Structure prediction request, 724 residues.
Amino acid sequence: MALWARQGSRWCGLLKAARAAEFPRSLRDRSSTAQACRGFAPLALPPSRNDVLLWRRQGYRHVSVGSCSPPDSAKDGSFSSESNLPSPVEQEQAKAETLPDLNAKILYEDWDDIPPSSALEEISEEEAVQIIAEPLLPLQSSTLRDYVDHSETLAKLVHLGVDLSQVEKRQKAGQLLLTLDFEKDIRKILLFLKDVGIEDNQLGPFLTKNPYILAEDLEALETRVAYLKSKKFGKAEIAQMVSRAPYLLLFSVERLDNRLGFFKNELGLSVKKTKDLVIRLPRLLTGKLEPVKENLQVCQIELGFQPNEIQQIMFRTPKILTASKKRLKQTFDYLHNIMGIPHHMLTRFPQVFNSKLLRIKERHMFLMFLGRAQYDPAQPSYISLDQLVSLPDEVFCTEIAKASMQDFEKFLKTL
Amino acid sequence: MAVPGGLFAVYKPAGVAWGRVRGAVETALLRELNAAPGRPPRQHVRFLPAPDGTTGLVAARVPVLADHPLVRGPRFRRLKIGAGHRLDTKASGVFVLGIGHGNKLLTHLYNCHLTKVYTVGGLFGKATDDFSDTGNLVEKTTFDHITREKLERIVAVIQGTNHKALLMYSNIDMKTQEAYELAVKGLIRPMGKSPPIITAIRCLQFALPEFQLEIHCLHETQQYLRKIVHEIGLELKSSAVCTQVRRIRDGVFTLDDALLRTQWNLQSIRNAIWDCQLKVKTELEKTLGHQDKSLLPKMAAEMAHAADG
Prediction:
């Protein structure tokens, strides 16, 4: 506070009057001082090179300093309230003299050395540019918006395409970005990511998803890439994996190795196939392993697939491994128990598990209504499961259901 | 881009909670509203080094970075979407939603106590603990003795008893001119809280063991309608479960006004609000007009406001 008072604009009398009004209670209770100060303030308002006024301001400075150290000012207040001084100016002076505060003395000397500046004094252009007439930066804030105009690092990140509004929601990510320096810390990581093979326009989205990589040690990152290379992943494949699963490079080599081993063992795939699997869905490596285990159990025990069928399904649509098991069960229940599709058909078209249950239901009911729900390849007018779920509504209506879009919409409103 | 304001109806599919439906509409609207270009960023004056390399500074206006879309984040984060009379998870049909000023209209519409129309499917021969076909089976019965005439007789009895309740809860002396005038306009219905009342019920289809009813009612819940089906089964010395509850009209909103899942986008919702505006206005004036004259100007202003927004 004292510091602020020293640095603050020197000619703004009004501000000081406001400060005077904030005197500690002991001072205000005696009231005469506070009132005197308030009455005094407007006098100091028009800034001029008047010596008297300057001297008055000196007196004032001490008041503001005094107000920051309550015991002193309390003493001071009791003193001034008892003496019945004729002019407020003299009163201030008296107070200034009686202040026993060491700070105030230093300030007093400072004040004597530096020639006082005034609003009317001409200053050079260089100095004028230095003056920032904006409010001070908040010391703490819940958003990076307050800092982005003052931080070159943040400005450069925004121009790179990093969505700060997303990043600031992440735990500690905002603080991290504020402590980093673009030239010193960020540039090397960006160059490294470019070396790995991430496209220029992908850097922004990548850092939005994973800002924490900026605090990571460069050598550690290089070791992890080297590990992936040693596992015979090609350069383009590594680039694809890293850009699709931004957290991949935050995993230590041992953890990556463990996880690759996990998928190889759980699914019983060959090395080449495991590699193929994680290249297609690299988020398997960075996600949790518990849901994957659960999904495999659900498929085997509750849905009754054979191990080789599971292997086939998971290799073709690895997304099922990360799907919600509740949804998986509901979809299977509808497909198998209501539509009557056997396991081997589901193994042939595992992509039906990725589509919405509501969509399958609507289309199946419409086909039932039209009498076209025929999913057995051995019979004529066979409709494959892939056609059932993957086509857009218009194509489905005309090609598969052989009905108009209006009919389909009307039918949907009867469900 | 302005947020639309007003009332519209969507078609709620069965098996989805109404909150999810409202959430889906909100997400779809937010996506489109935020994709539209927003306000241009503010400008502030900065002194930049001269571009030609000479010493000295040049004043220039540059956009404030704090207003950059990547810093500011999406313009709309949530919309106020209110729901009319709810539909439970198993029920489907017309579901009224209100955005912005439509929320006030929803309150007025609630105060009108309009009737709703449902089609209710039933299946004889079974009884379950929650009256729907997916509940736990409680008993199995025979239903060969049921004929369409027997069913219609029961239906007529239900309508008769409910009519008496309707007159009782409408709080109007039947021997007055006022009652006559209201009856001419078709406005005799309870204007406060009342137990569920069926104003009309008829049998649409009868093919053993299935049947379908059309029920006009007010102050109902979907579970009450399922219970009605169950009781019809008991009255016919059999039992019945409810296979489907589907609302085909909610007050002034009919099945044709309802937007399907694929139509939940800004343009369709704007059009739907526009189309329904007049219907809602006339209905509000008709019902609330004779009650409280002082309410009307206020409501007209709200309607006009909703039309602008």
Observations:
- The mean pLDDT of chain B is 88.
- The CA atoms of residues 6 and 246 of chain B lie 24 Å apart.
- The interface with chain A takes residues 11, 13-16, 44, 47, 57, 64-66, 68, 70-74, 92, 246, 255, 258, 260-262 of chain B (CB under 8 Å).
